[in-house]
Amino acid sequence: MGNDRSLALVQGAVGGVLAGIALAQGGLLWMAPALALLWSACRFPVAASLWGFVAVLLSHRWLLALHPLTWVGVPAFLSLPVAASIWLFCGAAAAVLVGLWAWLGTSLAHLITREAGIRAQVFHALLMASIWGLAEVLLARSPLFWIGVGGSLLPGDRALAGLARWLGAGGLATLQLLIGWWLWRTALAWRRGVGWRRSLLVGLLFLLLAHGFGWSLLRSSDASAPISVAAWQPAIPTRSKFSEAQQRRLPESLQNALDRAEELDAAWLVAPEGLLPPDEVLLRPAPLPLLSGGFRWLSGQQRSALLVVDRGARLASAFIDKHRLVPLGEWLPALPGGVFRGLSAVGGLQPGAASRLLQWPGPTAAVAICYELSDGAALAQAIADGAQWLLVVANLDPYPLALQRQFIALAQLRSIETARDLLSVANTGPSALVLATGKQQQLLAPFTEGVGLADLHLHQGISGYTRWREAPLIGLMIFAVVGLGWSRRRS
């Protein structure tokens, strides 16, 4: 028993390392064996917890770049411990969630008798995989920035990720859990020397067909003629963003970006999250429409928003507020004595409406401000309500390039899910265009200032995921529950 537990812990640790690499870089070649090791290790929930802990610590190590935090009022001697605590908290949260999933799996497995056979085991795998997939969808709506298994296929495997057009991120997570289960069961069959060749061939055939079907779903035929859209990447260090010198330079820099966009014959200019102060007035009338992140006041409450300045105007006339706020970084709980005062660079913000639909004089857009990008269901709802393209504005500074890679992979996933072109504009990057096929076109190099030009296509069609959302995944879970109960009764 002791040796078996030790082996499970090793499997959990090694699997967590592989999963951390997959979540950071993307690729089924890393995630599939990681999930196979998870299936093997989850006979001991503690080992599964170790898998989740290690995976998130590796994939979210960019959180340590929060240090130093002295610019938001954290004492220097506490800066690194605070940043490390946030990082460790995320790892611990993942450990708890994966451990609970494994505990549920072992509890359900005890209901399967030896006589039930492989059919019951398949239903058990379908149930556990669909539970994981649905959990990722729910977690994506939480205050935390969730980077789950669903998006780990990108950027490396667009063909298999194409299935997200029907199944969404939760469906991709479920599919990868099942691929991991197949690898694990094939390895067990190989150790016994019985049936492993058949299992391997059937699984490889399924993978081939899934890739072919996913690739076929990426075809898009309803694209409009391209519209030239300019993106301004100011590359302003967040730690000095609110300094007096930076605030003095900002109006002229913005005006120069507008002039440059006009020279490029752009239809409008997009600027990143949090750029404009409340009630900002442009130095001169805008030569073309401006969509910029910024702040505004409403009934004494400050909100982060995407602001729209019409051509010829100097003030914003339309907006969409940020709905999901970063705990402590943007949203502060109202506790006595101002306990959290100083932890937010922008003060306590209030959330806006849940809808991500922006209606303005230009083409209707589905908007995500920073890590709202992780909630695919909210963006799909905006597409269902009539949005023709996706717009993401963000500020990922002071985080390193590793987060930018994960962010653009999420952007690719959202584009594939909704069959829409996506424009990402961020302070230090990534500033890129993602086509409806999931193909990425970088507009500007990371951490450099400049104005880039994107050829944006508008789309009208509705993808399967936009229409059905998580209904197929819920149906799969119900099917697995019924099948598991039927197998138990027959045995």
Domains counted in the coordinates: how many? 2
Structural class: alpha/beta
Number of helices: 13
Mean pLDDT over the residues: 92
Largest sheet: 6 strands, mixed
What is the percent of helical residues? 40-55%
Order of helices and strands: HHHHHHHHEHEEEEEEHEHEEEEHH
Number of strands: 12
Q: How would you describe the shape?
A: globular
How far apart lie the N and C ends? 28 Å
Strand order of the largest sheet: 5-4-3-2-1-12
Rg result: 24 Å
Q: What share of the residues does DSSP label as strand, in percent?
A: 5-15%
Quaternary organisation: single chain
Residue ranges: pLDDT <50 for 5 or more in a row?
334-344
Q: Which descriptors would you attach to this protein?
A:
Nitrilase/N-carbamoyl-D-aminoacid amidohydrolase; 491 residues; 6-stranded mixed sheet; 2 domains; alpha/beta; globular; 13 helices
